[in-house]
UniProtKB/TrEMBL annotation:
Pfam families in UniProt: FAD_binding_3 (PF01494)
Keyword flag Kinase: no
Name of the protein in question: FAD-dependent monooxygenase
Gene Ontology MF terms: FAD binding; monooxygenase activity
Every FAD-binding domain range: 13-79
Key words of the record: Monooxygenase, Oxidoreductase
Amino acid sequence: MENADDFYFEVLRQVRMDRWSAGRVVLAGDAAWCATPISGIGTTLAIVGAYVLAGELSKSTDPSEGFAAYERIMRPFVEEGQSVPKIMPRLLNPHSRIGVAMLRGALRVIDQPVVKGAAMKLFVRDSQKLELPEYGSPTGKTSSTP
Ligand SMILES: Cc1cc2nc3c(=O)[nH]c(=O)nc-3n(C[C@H](O)[C@H](O)[C@H](O)COP(=O)(O)OP(=O)(O)OC[C@H]3O[C@@H](n4cnc5c(N)ncnc54)[C@H](O)[C@@H]3O)c2cc1C
C-alpha cells in the first residue's frame, strides 16, 4: 500500500433511498440501494433487480406501474440485504494490531469445518430464499427463475 503509485481509498457507504424512480427514470443495483461489499449480496441484488425490473416493465402498459411493482417486490430483499450488523464494518476493518490479530484468529476458527456450517447459516445470505416471479419471454416461452 505504501509503495503503490495508484493506491485508491474510499469509505464504505450504503445507499438508502425513499424511492427508486421519478417519472421515466429508474435506478437499479448499487445506484439504487448499494449495500456495500460487507453485505456480500450486492451482485445478487443487482442481477435480480434487473430481472424484476425488466419483467415488470414487460407486463405494464405504463412505466410508472412497472416501477411501482418492481419497488414493491425488491424492497424486502434489499432491506434484508442491507441489514448488516452494525459491528461488522468495525470487526472486518480493525484499527489496531490487536484487532487484526483477533480478526485473523476469528477467521481461522470460522474456517474449521465444524464451525463453518453454523457461521455460513448466520452470516451468508441464502439466495434460494428469494421467491421470484416468473415472467413470460417475448418469444412466448416461460423464463426459468434465476
Ligand atoms: C471491493 C468490493 C467487493 C465486493 N464483493 C462482493 C461480493 O463478494 N459479493 C457481492 O455480491 N457483491 C460484492 N460487491 C458488490 C458488487 O460489486 C456490486 O453490488 C455490484 O457490482 C453492483 O452492480 P451494478 O451493476 O449496480 O453496479 P456496477 O457493477 O458498479 O456497474 C456500474 C457500471 O456503470 C459504469 N458507469 C458509471 N458511470 C457511468 C457513466 N456515466 N456512463 C457509462 N457507464 C458508467 C461503471 O463503469 C460500471 O461498469 C463488492 C464490491 C466491491 C467494491
